[in-house]
Structures
1.
Amino acid sequence: MSGRRRLVRTTLAGGVARLTLDRPERHNSLVPELLDDLLAAIEALADEPSVRAVVLAAEGRSFSTGGDVRAFHDQPDERLRDYAAGLVGRLNRTILALLGLPQPVIARVQGPVTGGSLGLVLAADLVAATPEAFFAPYYVTVGFAPDGGWSALLPERIGLQRTREIQLLNRRVGAAEARALGLVTEVVEAGALDACIAGWLAILEGHVASGLRAARRSLLTDARRAAYAAGLEAERQAFLAEVARPETRRGMARFLGARAAG
């Protein structure tokens, strides 16, 4: 850990743990170091009885733009598949760790949630988002296979046909539609986002802590967790099958070129 700054900040106050993605210069895009820091922070909370709720937030204009395409693109051919295996594997473990926390999890979302970062939001119990927030896959424009629960978790939430439509058309889902679909709990202006979350935390504080934990635990049965884990691993294997294809290399270059031109 020495020699680099942490890419996730953890603060504890009043029984609430706040985990903040802190790579705003790259829109909190996912790299191994960020996921290592996030997973370590989550695991540290699992057996912490003084923490009654967890808030997952992000620094800057974006919640997270998913896997850092530049980091993928810059990998030499002989290392690309190993890099992808490690990154998607870390993401899967992080999603499952969030789902497995005994405490309620609240996601604070602003700006884009793209690619695999969707899984961090899907793992939350409550989601507060600004009107400018949106969700988008981008897999078909780059050539990656879906990860982060786009096939393993999302169809259960919004239905298989709607998931197909969004992915195949690479359609952006705005905050209002995301609320209608059940991806977001409340859409509030940026200045009211923290007040909304504070209201939820006040409600949670009035409940019996053991009851909250029992409710969350009962919703993640062993069978459901096993199904999620199997689905996420299937995503990882599909991702690895696609990532090193020449057309995916070309797709990454086009994507990065379009971003630079924009």
Note: The two ends are 35 Å apart (CA to CA).
2.
Amino acid sequence: MTDILSVRALNRATLARQLLLAREPITVADAVGRLCGMQAQEPKPPFLGLWTRLDGFQASDLHTALHDRSVVRATMMRATLHLMAGDDYTAFRTAMQPMLDGGLRVLGDRGKGLEVEKVIPAARSLIAEQPRTFNEVRALLQEEFPDVNDRALGYTVRLCVPLVMVPTQDRWGFPRNSQFTLADAWLGKAPATTPATDELMLRYLAAYGPAPAADAQTWSGLSALGESLDRLRPDLRVFTDDKGRELFDLPDAPRPGEDAPAPARFLPEFDSLVLAHADRRRVIADAHRPSLTTKNLRVRAVFLWDGFACGTWETEYKRKVATLRLRPFEPLPQEAVRELTAEGESLLRFLEPEAKETVVSLSEEG
């Protein structure tokens, strides 16, 4: 009979792997590797995600990692932009390709006349000449393929050519219209020739486990990952959750007790933690999950109290006053308000170091 892990036990196990039970004194590249990537659909959130996880983190630490190429920003899981450790990008980019190829289906009629096998070498040649923005890539490819929709051409390049964004000295590392370059040129080596899917699953479990195949599929966008976990089964621990589903885990991965203290923490928009499982009760209650995403599919920033998402947050900076507004899903105990206020003031000092005043306010709207 396998051991049963409660939702709270899963919460503490996942927080331990996500560097959210205590800030850790490790490098940015090591942290991004430990997390098996960080969602980076926008450039700012990873800075906040690292601040909330790393001891003494400064924005310059991520800038340095981006410029020394130990960390890259590139299309990966779920065909979305992620920060990846450079070595992990080359190791796992090929494993993502079946999912990325499948993404071309969304083009529908816009893909009329598209010949992927011709577009890819043409795009590689253009980007090998010099880094380019996607506006530039689309325009140049349109000259070569005038009968194909320009957006279809750009989308094909985004999914099928291994590219990384070129960092700049912008505050959050990248301008609004970033340039891209070939990943193999930037990193000095090409992506692995074979898909390291089993190794990717081990890394997923190390960062987000214990978990079933359905969770790994939600996180990655890949399908049929149960086959990979079945291959790995002899070397894994197997548990069940409160619904009787099998959960796989690394034998020596941290699984602290349910009573392990979990400090107040602020997660940025699009944080991978709130997107990495099909069953997200280990992070956010089902009743609050609809509040996580806006109508235009933005993933809101949330704050954690006692390990769980208890509300959303947003900031404003006007006239040298930095304000953090907490919007709890339900009324918070005074202890939570005190701890979140203290942590929130630290967050504001990181975000707005020039502020003359910091204010943490609590919305009563819920």
Note: The CA atoms of residues 205 and 249 lie 6 Å apart.
3.
Amino acid sequence: MILCLATTLAHVALVFLHVAPASTVSKRFSPQINAWVYPFFEQNWRLFAPEPDSVNRQVLARAAHTRSDGSMKVSAWFDLVAEDNSAVEHSVFPSHTAQNLLRRAWTSYTDSHGGDDNARTERAVMMQKYLSNIAADRVAARNAGTVDFIQLRVVTLPIAAPGAAVGNRPPTPVENRLLPWWKVTTHGK
């Protein structure tokens, strides 16, 4: 009971220091505050006034597993966005998390990494691990197997303007980004 109360008070204090105007305390303890708040308790106005996407992103993941003989077994690509869209489409009350978890993780990753996929800050490392964990969890749940490495490919497609004639050809990707293989340390069954 006391631990629960202490955790609740610490959480309220840390989130308050995060959203309040900058002060001596919030500046001094900024790394600790950010470590608590990001990525799960991030505060922004997108919940109330989301910015609509101007592109469609297809986030694909594949896993690799080291066999007992030392060779690598690589899975087929698995479309994470299609899984999210299906879950939202077939739910009477889809959650905000189901709709935006992967999209926000990808946006945070690109904001912290830029175009070269090199993590230069603690936040960038954290966002890479966050994105990796989402993908590894989903691939492991689907394949019911061990995941040693995970790789993502993100294909960005333009959204047609309203009233534009839709042809028989699929849209040309604006970006086709292949991320490096990431080691997964906490997954396996």
Note: The two ends are 34 Å apart (CA to CA).
4.
Amino acid sequence: MFEHFGIKDFIDILLVAALLYYLFKMVKISGMRPLFIGIVVFMIIWVLVSQVFDMVLLGSILDQFVDIGLILLVILFQDEIRRFLMSLGSKKGWKFISKLFVPVDKQQKDISHITSIVLACMNMSKAKVGALIVIQGDLQLSLYEQSGEIINADVSSRLIENIFFKNSPLHDGAMIVVGKKIKAAGCILPISQNPNIPKHMGLRHRAGLGITQETDAKVIVVSEETGKITFAEEGRLKVNVNPEELQQLILAE
């Protein structure tokens, strides 16, 4: 079986392993890791039965499951497949290739808008004002922007605090920041169904986590009950973040 194994076969296996690892990271974000592991184990058993041990009867039965399973996989992982294709089509998916040909701009970035966001979160944390701020990555958030009120204003700590003021009509929704602009506020986000979210976290945290499972956005949540700042990215929550950590997390690539 392995007598004709060459460099092309090694590259083939390496690419499949890289694809499986990338898919594993994506389903881990959405909380479907046990299902993904179960499918991988089934595929290993199928290969062993059909190709290695050449069990005809059991192999033919498993072949039928595989034929139907392809359709089931598309249904079960439709959100992950959509996110995978969106990632490939975004500039983030080609970032590594572009670095090989385009010299990196080493000029210092203007982070004044990030400083304004951090300052506003610090003030809201002290006053225990609830907030949900979404910072767009490479994937567009136009669909979620349309669910709220379009603002399209420069990022300002005072404006952020006024939007999330308790008597403001927009304070219950999410604010979406695109570049140096507050694009929209009062936006509705998808709610995460991840069962591992702590029970004491409310809808703000679940919505913040939900958008990071759908896109590559970074999210800041300020708790109305405790005033603690939580940072969400790639389906993971980092709780009780201080202002210095928050700025580093936002700027991290």
Note: The mean pLDDT is 80.
